[in-house]
Prior knowledge:
- The structure holds two protein chains of two kinds.
- Chain A contains no helices and twelve strands.
- Chain A has strands at 3-5, 10-14, 19-21, 24-26, 32-39, 46-52, 60-61, 64-69, 74-79, 88-96, 107-108, 112-117.
- In chain A, strands 2, 5, 6, 10, 11 and 12 form a six-stranded mixed beta sheet that branches. Chain A has a four-stranded antiparallel beta sheet with strand order 3-9-8-7, with no helix packed on it. In chain A, strands 1-4 form a two-stranded antiparallel sheet.
- Chain A starts with a strand and ends with a strand.
- In chain A, 36% of the residues are buried.
- Chain B has a single domain (4-97, 109-115), classed as Immunoglobulin-like (Sandwich), CATH 2.60.40.10.
- The model of chain B has no long low-confidence stretch (mean pLDDT 91).
Amino acid sequence: AQTVTQSQPEMSVQEAETVTLSCTYDTSESDYYLFWYKQPPSRQMILVIRQEAYKQQNATENRFSVNFQKAAKSFSLKISDSQLGDAAMYFCAYRTSINTGTASKLTFGTGTRLQVTL
Amino acid sequence: DTAVSQTPKYLVTQMGNDKSIKCEQNLGHDTMYWYKQDSKKFLKIMFSYNNKELIINETVPNRFSPKSPDKAHLNLHINSLELGDSAVYFCASSHSQDRGGYNEQFFGPGTRLTVL
Lengths: 118, 116
């Protein structure tokens, strides 16, 4: 079974600075998808960024980028120019790409609470 | 234009009661999910339906019974509620796996269930 580990329960960053959130995972599959979700106090789950395992290029979305190291099974999230609105829980998630023909669950890490200070 | 909606958003009830949470999506997806987020914020899949057929059924007490009347709706009924059922329950939807690609899951706003 796949597992996702986020070893940082809490992180803090000053506004306008850069922070990196760590995520490692364990899988025997060669192709899969990885995601970072943001959950602000409103509790809405918001997709921040996604990466397909067979793509070597790291995904970027504006101020958010990932460092995907497939051999190390590592998928960290970098937030540049941090803003107060970035304060939230961040969840790393894994999904198989095996064609089951139907559904595939997301397996989540335990989350990292990010605080943004002035 | 709410994509995935859940009702109610908050539910407070006594132990032993039976309650239902409803979920609707207007994204044209054919796959829907229920996730549970516990008090430590850990999110875990409970069920998934594809075209009204149960596809994923994790180790969940049989007091929990999902029902999908059509592709756009997935309800969760909980019998004999226990204190440990207190959590936030999220509904999500996506296209099915066989379409290829990310098949991003879109989440509803969550239902906070409190059992007293």
